[in-house]
Amino acid sequence: MRGVVFKGDRVVEIQDFDDPAPGRDEVVLEIKASGMCGSDLHFYRAPAGQALAAFGLTGDDAGIIGGHEPCGVVAAVGADVDPRAVRVGDRMMVHHYDGCGFCDQCRTGWPQLCERGNVIYGATAHGGHADFLKVPARTLVPLPDELSFAAGAAISCGTGTAFGALRRLRVDAGDSIAVFGQGPVGQSAVQLAAAMGARVIAVDIERARVERATEFGAADTVDSSTADPVEAIRELTGGKGVTKALDCSGAPPARAAAVKSAAKWGTVAFVGEGSNVTLDVSPDLIRKQLTVLGSYTFSLVGQADCARFVAAHGVEVDRVFTDRWRLDDAVKAYEAFDRQTGGKAVIEF
């Protein structure tokens, strides 16, 4: 089979690998769609041999197939896999983490928080930028028939991350929510929050992304390159601020603005990784009775919940993909993705 390997220094290679065979508790997935995530660029841009370190991980990344947003069809199952749960031909996503399977975090569906360490498919183990992917059966999440494989790839990381944060924020139809950062995660958050009935205000520094946010369901938009987003949001909300705010950018000014734009008794979530934020604790937090939380991707159950929500509400999450590529075009795909002038990309088979 073919697989895409990040060599570092903006070099990608399509290499040949042996076709995988499942172990007793494993499955082999024939990949149909594999999303390209912004975090892949850490591996793509890192100095040769230092990709994992650049992403805050340890280990040997030599020869690892990239891609942590896999979706496809079960091609083979191991002898111990329960046929009531997984069968050849099933449409499946992959929860791209695996852990020990025994600690409290793993048992509750959070292997990325495993107390004994974890595997990240596409980072520390082979990922989905390949014809086939071998994973433990317990990592599979069913893809509803109503959804495309590209939608499944979106849910497997960016869209699922947005859904997980909105669930932690407890967003409902009584809320107003400001979504800072209109990259793929922010776009998904706008779509999902609108489907939950909330009034959505989308914020970004790029005009094109701001303009597109209305297509994803934003009731109002703020171009923070030309306007103070906190003042704009207060004006849009009659001076009160939003009941919920979500930062998907990871940029310190956006994080601070998310907090400052929240109303009294509001809740703010951060999903954008890296960097930091400086706040004036008394007026920004204490005197507003504000709740601030961090949200890290999603659980196995959360990924399944997201897929069912998307299917039930007809949310077109695969619209976040502006570029679609074939595996043979992976070198060109990452060259284009690295320029960050478009939106999200997906490799389709």
From TrEMBL:
Annotated PROSITE patterns: ADH_ZINC
Matching InterPro entries: ADH-like_C (IPR013149), ADH-like_N (IPR013154), ADH_Zn_CS (IPR002328), ER (IPR020843), GroES-like_sf (IPR011032), NAD(P)-bd_dom_sf (IPR036291), Zn_alcohol_dh (IPR050129)
Cofactor: Zn(2+)
Gene3D superfamilies referenced in this protein's UniProt entry, alphabetically: Medium-chain alcohol dehydrogenases, catalytic domain
Keywords (A to Z) from UniProt: Metal-binding, Oxidoreductase, Zinc
One function term, GO molecular function aspect: zinc ion binding
Keyword Metal-binding: yes
All residue ranges annotated as the Enoyl reductase (ER) domain in the record: 8-347
Family: Belongs to the zinc-containing alcohol dehydrogenase family.
Protein name: Iditol 2-dehydrogenase
